[in-house]
Design goal:
The protein is an alpha+beta fold. Helices cover 50% and strands 8% of the residues. The chain folds into 3 domains: 1-66, no CATH class; 76-210, no CATH class; 231-329, Homeodomain-like (Arc Repressor Mutant, subunit A, Orthogonal Bundle). The protein is built from 16 helices and 6 strands. The strands form 2 sheets. A 4-stranded antiparallel β-sheet has the order 3-4-6-5, covered by helices on one side. A two-stranded antiparallel sheet has the order 1-2. α15 crosses α16. The radius of gyration is 22 Å and the shape is globular. The relative contact order is 0.11.
Length: 340
């Protein structure tokens, strides 16, 4: 999970709604976030991770008597809250495919954890690593993950899932029985791992709203949206901006460095300190532009020409290196707005 990626404000809006329902004002919920109600409920609003985490802290501090606050927050999450990713999951063929999508585009969701899955003939386990979660919010966020997994599975399957097991690494809280009331099972606490387990037979059952074309189109837009949200700051952001302006001829690093009033060697060193490279940024920009133009219906030859490739075959090879697939295998029309 890349905490620097901005996200849609939908999840934060739900947190504020919970606070208001329990007697807080919107202003109290948004303390120390730099946000106001007008921004929060703007349809296009995005927030950063620090702002959402601060709202969680505000709720946790001001509502100490609300049992299972994080679990309640997770159960409020819906596929529609996740925007285009939610629609991609809803139209998946099976629960296994929906989970795979969620994991591939986890940065479009509202997770703050590393998530993986494992399965055997009996059960499928969702493993949640909370090592990157702030210690003061660990229980809240892990409860939210469990509640969200239950709510989203319910929506995808069209019925409430039966959990086989639920385990948390944090100590048993006073409201442990609340879990059984909300999700049908009381967790194991103080466990060696955070996990959610369901019957393996659920994984490959056909989903009621499966639609292969819708799923492909939605996944395409997930890819495009994630690219946009991964815009970089610092020196990498400056390089990226200049590459976007010169995408058709991709200047050499020395030429671009001169526009930043540094040497090529200095620019390489600064990019390396930010965990990237000039080639990575150039590939990122060209890949993002290519995906957008292809999704809009431009032919491969036209995209190749726009990006300054000498011939389409060179572009096709580059595209396969960037994405692992050929441009000809991608959908050529987009029917759903990419807004999450």
């Amino acid at each position: 999970m890349e905490s620097g990626i901005r996200r849609a404000a939908a999840s934060l809006q739900l947190l504020v709604q919970i606070g208001v329902e329990h007697g807080l004002s919107t202003l109290q919920c948004l303390e120390q976030t730099g946000l106001d109600a007008a921004h929060l409920f703007d349809a296009d609003a995005e927030v950063d991770a620090a702002q959402e985490l601060q709202v969680m802290r505000n709720l946790q501090r001001q509502l100490p008597g609300v049992a299972g606050l994080g679990l309640l927050a997770g159960l409020r999450l819906r596929l529609s809250t996740h925007g285009i990713l939610g629609y991609a999951m809803l139209s998946s063929a099976t629960l296994r495919e929906a989970l795979s999508l969620m994991l591939r585009y986890l940065d479009l969701a509202y997770a703050y954890c590393e998530v993986s899955t494992e399965s055997d003939p009996v059960e499928m386990r969702i493993l949640v690593n909370d090592r990157q979660v702030p210690a003061d919010l660990r229980r809240f966020i892990m409860e939210r993950v469990a509640g969200a997994a239950f709510a989203l599975a319910h929506e995808v399957l069209g019925r409430a899932p039966e959990l086989r097991r639920l385990s948390f690494s944090f100590p048993r809280p006073p409201h442990a029985e609340r879990y059984r009331q909300l999700v049908g099972v009381e967790p194991e606490f103080g466990a060696s791992a955070n996990l959610i387990a369901v019957d393996a037979s659920l994984l490959d059952q056909p989903l009621p709203q499966a639609n292969a074309l819708t799923q492909r189109l939605c996944e395409e837009q997930c890819r495009m949206l994630l690219n946009r949200r991964r815009q970089r700051g610092g020196v990498a952001g400056q390089v990226r901006d200049r590459l976007l302006q010169a995408y058709d001829r991709m200047p050499e690093i020395e030429e671009l460095a001169a526009t930043l009033h540094v040497t090529g060697r200095t620019l390489r060193r600064r990019l390396d300190a930010e965990g990237t490279s000039y080639r990575d940024l150039a590939d990122e920009v060209r890949c993002m532009l290519a995906e957008g133009w292809l999704a809009a219906g431009l032919p491969v030859d036209e995209v190749s020409l726009r990006l300054g490739f000498s011939e389409p075959s060179a572009f096709i090879r580059a595209f396969k290196r960037w994405t692992g697939r050929t441009p000809g295998g991608r959908p050529r029309a987009v029917a759903v707005q990419a807004r999450s």
